Amino acid sequence: MTDTADIPLTVALEDLRIDGLRLIERLENLARLGGIDLQGRPVPDGVVPAGSSRLAATQADGRGRDLVVGWMRDLGLQIRIDEVGNVTGTRPAADGSTDHPVMTGSHIDTVATGGKYDGNLGVLSALEVIATLDEHRIATRRPITVGFFTNEEGARFQPDMMGSLVYAGGLPPSVARAAKDLAGMALGDELTAIGYLGEAPAPGPAPHAFVELHIEQGPVLERDGAVVGAVTGVQGISWTEVRIAGQGNHAGTTPMGSRRDAGLAAARLAVFLDDLARRSPSNQVATVGQVELFPNLVNVIPGRARLTVDLRNIDNAALIAAEQAFRAYVEELAQTYGLEIALANLVRFDPVDFDARVIGLVERTATRLGHPVTRIASGAGHDAQMLARVAPTAMIFTTSHGGISHDPAEWTKPEDLVAAADTLLHVVLELSEGDHLAV
Amino acid sequence: MTDTADIPLTVALEDLRIDGLRLIERLENLARLGGIDLQGRPVPDGVVPAGSSRLAATQADGRGRDLVVGWMRDLGLQIRIDEVGNVTGTRPAADGSTDHPVMTGSHIDTVATGGKYDGNLGVLSALEVIATLDEHRIATRRPITVGFFTNEEGARFQPDMMGSLVYAGGLPPSVARAAKDLAGMALGDELTAIGYLGEAPAPGPAPHAFVELHIEQGPVLERDGAVVGAVTGVQGISWTEVRIAGQGNHAGTTPMGSRRDAGLAAARLAVFLDDLARRSPSNQVATVGQVELFPNLVNVIPGRARLTVDLRNIDNAALIAAEQAFRAYVEELAQTYGLEIALANLVRFDPVDFDARVIGLVERTATRLGHPVTRIASGAGHDAQMLARVAPTAMIFTTSHGGISHDPAEWTKPEDLVAAADTLLHVVLELSEGDHLAV
Lengths: 439, 439
Known about the structure:
The structure is a homodimer of 439-residue chains. Chain A is an alpha+beta fold.
């Protein structure tokens, strides 16, 4: 660490730790903006909320952004707001440069009834990295950038991970700004209204590396006794809408053998997919999240059904095989029951593999800090998968108690939050100093 | 036929036939009142409709009643309108008596988008019986009563089969009149508004016997090559509402083994019940007609589900066994997936067995007339099952093309309509003359 040799250290570099109490206090203070109780109802000022409702580019999101940008300014970061509202704050390198920073961050928008940690943890832990380095007067070989991306959740504007997708060059900023919510409001206008339609161009500058800390949003780390997850990549996602046309008929007068029951076919498909995923050796998951029957009456055999199928796998070949088995079973159902079944692809993303060097660094760092760590694939989409298009990238996960997320009941043990943020600190420090990314 | 021996017959009694063209014309003319096209839209005056929308005690029902009562008056019947709007018209016996009539009829109310035949066929065929006897100047030993009952469908006011239930003494008339539709209108007030809140007391007089002609509303007769069904009874009905509470969770991050998927449990239950019914040797039917998932999002494992289960069987012991298997499987699902599952009984009717003597008479009569006949249990409820409480009762079914009913596409071949009405004519004639009901 030659660049920092002339600055007096109060502790050895390997003993650096973030300020856990400050992190938790900031998480709570950010949660108050759009704060809600466990039932999703707004809480009065002064009451500590369970979770938050800060849909992208709403007034609540604007207040959250103001709070975080204020903290960035307090830390002396160079603020950049781009033309889709992505915000970055950069701490220059020891030589004053701001090019090719090590970048870390996440998002602060939430779903309609979200938790305190999803996204926020990654952004506020990144601020801890900066604050900790500042407090110990540590200058780094490379600049460090803290960012939060617009509309990661996709709960108000589609697609999700929108800001990071634009940042990485995957979506024109004009298209993102034109995205409309259900009330017909355009993202661009809504960003203007909260003062976050910036002038910096998108796509943004590619960083030296990108690391995102995020809660797992699943039960695996907790179940396996790990505190930190070294995230190997993001599962591929396949969403299909299934529309089944049979024959509505009288539930009493129609013998079983004469039925063309669209609802039954929907049920058999859901069971087939569940069995398929449970039998798979590849961590395949399958979910039928939406089902609608028509006419949806107690005494009428459903003539039509609509359902959605969500298939995910980190292994693209296995995902393709699951999709093929799904389609073959749909054919079989159509034949067996005399149904017309139409499939429409809603979403299809290939799996994303993170950078092996950054994954290894996360794993080694957590181990060195004494935090039980395991490799894990992300089941959810994250901004990091967009940044992976332009920079060596990985993620750090920590536990989600009970696997609960996208809910005000989302909760992580404070010591796990701090362990993960400490891991982020040392990963960023290593990336900003070393040559881990040399080929 | 001693009572009719002094009246000159133009044809031999066994050769009597109803006027098929008049029956079909009346079915069409009644269908015009509230007439709708195949999509359920009202048709302009003069256009022959596909079906009808005559919900009970609406203005359309009032116009339908006026038309049928007009035909009853043309036939010289003695009209009786009771305190829940049931209408009967009685043709006195040869001795002038109107006591203990042979009664036949059905209903003329429809579901919101109903067909031409459901109910109407039984009422207008009953008028054909009277007209045919009149035309041949045949007086009968017993009086004959033609009736139509209020609100059989239960599509506007609950319960269904309301008028016949009141007629048979199963529901106080004041309770029936107080029944409210979704707009808060009471049946009694709505009957007053259309001029059909009568003064005759309910329960009404028990007839000597009751026979109802109705379309099958199922595909069995057509499938089996029969034109007439000798209906042996009405299936018992068991309706249960199932509420499943699991854990809503992220579709990507929650491993299959960690899920408490309420939607999957609903699907497995629907498949189980379908398999149960198909395996049953007892003509068990099972239908899951309603399914609702919460939050019903493509990427969220359903945390809650609500569904309905409709089980029917003509054999009460078999129905009870099916209910027990259903509850046992619900227990198993709750255990396997860590769910809370609550069951609420919505409807439970024991099967109704019709009178063996009247069933046999229907069967023999159809055979004598040369119409292929089969014994069949009714999968749907009918006014006859209420009259069975107070008089020897059976029903005559005829075909429903494709089993379609409660839909403007409901259709029956004209020759089958006529064959069934001729069967009704001779069954009523036999009952009104003979001593078939002696013990």
